[in-house]
């Protein structure tokens, strides 16, 4: 790729990042570092949702090279190449609309990358000056390294032609980036407004284990959901709760869950049979019951702690909405809006479960360090 194209892409990333940076700088909030963290978390959530839209509209190869589009910085410049590809395959992966969807997704990703670098530089600079815990640079540096890995998988998603395991890992890394930003935002919030301790240490310890289990099952379910989406297995079962008229239909787990293979192919290069797609869909659908059980129990236990009640209610509400949109996707034959909402619900669950884990961990730490804890009324908080 020509150096001028790379320069144009870099300038686009700086331009996208300059908008939220300016908003944070001009805001009345005195703690601009904390505000920047939460703005980045919000934008990362948006990027994940738009990434789901990109995948669901089959726009992942709208520009079949990386990081530009046919070697250009934007689809306007690559108009002739895109028009030629669209003329050859009018319903194929390359169209003008799909090219713009893909490049907008990349521009947003580049902007977030620039924001993460700005956050890292600011944290290191402030840490050297003040040594305040709020600016501890370990997590911002980890975020920078993490986003570099995420960028590499974004490139491989295109260059390896949407290989399912690469696309699924790319999705999981995006969710991981969101979780890290929420964790950092939770740290900034709790340093600014520390919670009062509780004497219910046994309840908090049990809830911490349950919250960790909730995080694990959510990650597994997102991986399974990503595997469904990247293998185009969403409508492999077009009824609910049955699949092909049976509770346990004919399924090919061996080929369905072979990780390293081309899209639509087996590891040996043969076309993937429909029974493999059924297996992929069926596992994701049924694992949702485990997720509902674990998250429902975690939300119920968290609601018994006054400081966690709001988070618990949000988890319960998003969980119900997620179950509804998952079923509706099947009933309504995969409407795009519902499918995008289902992806957004998964990202919201990551955000809320991460928040729950941070709050429980911090609240438990504060309670264990408080000598007067025994004199507090049960579940007492400021």
Structural class: mainly alpha
Q: Sum up the overall morphology in one term.
A: flat
The count of helical stretches stands at: 11
Largest sheet: none
Query: How many strands in all?
Result: 0
Instruction: List the uncertain runs.
Output: 376-382
Overall average pLDDT:
92
Order of helices and strands: HHHHHHHHHHH
Strand content: under 5%
- Helix content percent band: 55-70%
Summary keywords:
69% helix, 382 residues, transmembrane helix, iron, COX15/CtaA_HemeA_synthase, 0% strand, 11 helices, mainly alpha, disordered C terminus, disulfide bond
Question: How would you explain this protein's 3D organization?
Answer:
Pathway: Porphyrin-containing compound metabolism. Pfam families: COX15-CtaA (PF02628). It is a multi-pass membrane protein. The chain crosses the membrane at residues 6-26, 38-56, 104-122, 134-153, 165-185, 206-228, 282-302, 314-332, 338-358. The protein has 382 residues and is an all-alpha fold. The protein folds into 2 domains: 1-193, no CATH class; 198-382, no CATH class. Helix content is 69%, strand content 0%. The protein has 11 helices and no strands. It has helices spanning 3-26, 32-56, 79-88, 96-130, 138-159, 164-192, 201-230, 253-256, 274-302, 309-331, 336-369. Helix 6 (164-192) crosses helix 11. The chain is flat, with a radius of gyration of 23 Å.
